[in-house]
Design goal:
This protein is mostly beta strands. It has a single domain, classed as Ubiquitin-like (UB roll) (Roll), CATH 3.10.20.550. 7% of the residues lie in helices and 26% in strands. The protein has a five-stranded mixed beta sheet. The radius of gyration is 20 Å and the shape is globular. The protein starts with 28 loop residues before the first strand and ends in a 23-residue tail after the last strand. One of its GO terms (molecular function) is transcription corepressor activity. Belongs to the SAP18 family.
Length: 162
């Protein structure tokens, strides 16, 4: 007998972020988040000339905030997004310094109730610049695939011969 019988050892592994910030000492920045419940991102043209889309959330956060953390914050104020299987597609919207327009860059996605590869990506790892906007396209689970043009939602659908 080794003397270890009946002993239970619990091991807790905490994800260590490379770009971790001491949130007690570092001041957060304002992240202006624009949410779309259509499954599509807002058009970059909606950000021109000082305009912004509706459905704005103002979140004070740090560069080590993960997409999962941001998903949780959006779910707090958006009850429909709490349903399991709801997709969140994240993009940064930023001004193009060479032209007078905005660009949109998709940076990751999460899903309510499902762990995914982008959950632990941080704003710092995704190279956010303070002042960029975040655009989140939310797709409810019953609308998957419907956000793609031409999708019929029926795999057995075939055009009828004339």
């Amino acid at each position: 007998m080794s003397g270890m019988e009946g002993r239970h050892v619990e091991l807790v592994v905490e994800e260590k972020k490379d770009d971790a910030v001491d949130r007690q000492k570092v001041c957060p920045f304002l992240l202006r988040v624009f949410v779309s419940n259509t499954g599509y991102h807002h058009k970059p043209s909606e950000y021109l000339k000082g305009n912004t889309p509706q459905n704005e959330l103002q979140i004070y956060t740090w560069k080590d905030a993960t997409l999962h953390e941001l998903t949780q914050l959006v779910k707090e104020v958006n009850p429909e997004a709490r349903r399991k299987g709801t997709k969140f597609n994240f993009a940064f919207v930023y001004p193009d310094n060479r032209q007078s327009l905005y660009r949109l860059r998709e940076v990751g996605s999460t899903m309510t109730g499902v762990k995914g590869p982008d959950d632990l990506k941080t704003l710092g790892q995704l190279r956010i610049n303070i002042g960029d906007y975040m655009d989140i396209a939310i797709t409810p689970p019953d609308n998957w695939g419907m956000s793609r043009k031409g999708y019929t939602g029926n795999f057995n659908h075939r055009p009828r011969p004339y």
